[in-house]
Fold this protein.
Amino acid sequence: MAYFRKVKAKNKKGYTWAFTIEIGIDPETGKRKQLTRRGFETKKDAEMASGKIQQEIENDEFIQPKKVLVKDFMVDWLNNIAKQNVKPSTFAGYKGVVAKRIIPIFGALKLEQLKPIMITKYYNSLLEEGLSEEYIDYIHSILKTSLNTAVKWEFIKTNPVVKADKPSLKKKSVSTWSIEECNAFLSKANEDSKPHFYILYLLAIYTGMRRGEILGLKWSDIIFTQKKISIARTLYYIHDQGIIEQSTKNDGSTRVISISDMVINELKKHQLWQKERKLEYGIPYSEDGYITANHKGEALNPNYVYNHFVKMTKKAGLKKIRFHDLRHTHATIMLQLGEHPKIVSERLGHSSIEMTMNTYSHVTPDMQQDSSDRFEEALKNAKNL
């Protein structure tokens, strides 16, 4: 049974309608629980709201929002859900976004106060700040996933992020080097950098592996007799934890790829160099077996790779690209040379061939033209037989 009454308006002159309704028995105290809602313009509005809640109670669908602050919930979610279900590198990313982008804006609010319009406006402010649509989408996914847990824990009834409007993702242009630029870079790297950096760049261009995958390679992953590389782990640098090793991110990333005779020979030369250095240096040398190990045989810090790559690109006089663009370069050149997209997809560890073709759609027009020309030539030759 609901009790309706007029009450003095909080933030304006006059009166509004309120109601109080019984919502059951508190299992901890055994006392009756009541819910009060106010701020309705008319009694009819209050009756409609009351009726909706009564219906939810009868259908066992009613959830009373708990007075939990966003900042407290996000910390609980990180420690009790995210940390247990994602890899350390992913968790570090979540933790950074929560601390820098979510708690400062929404932390002091109660979960029940979060509304779709507030979140939409926040996304728009991030765009104005200059953040990419891709990064905003990342924040959106963290908010959505975490608040799904809030619904599951019955802190809120619905997830406000579901109805928030996030910016559409724009197709990113892929920046790559030509074959000539790759050769010029590798030549310069071989001349002016330490061997472990040269072998890193060689593997990046000739295999399309990710930076972390190359840094995580060990000599035990090289199948010299079969000219193959087994990719099973990756290295990350996490603030406050240092360099960590973890398994590759999914079944597609755990893969075996073929390499050429030249790459095999360069790997053998590098392995010999490591052995000679170990004997010559006369210091404790790590036995971890990393191919791109530093002068002590230890895993190479991914952050060092970024800085060195930028410097080496300048020395080679080439246009600036990211290290990750060496992966794009490998795939683009393979497709331009007529390699089947399925093979390229498998080498890259993509989840599907569609992902590969969407990423490298800039190559498709040339592929279609070449295919059309080959088709015409085949029919002409058949006709002349």
About this structure: The mean pLDDT is 88. The radius of gyration is 30 Å. The longest helix spans residues 261-281.
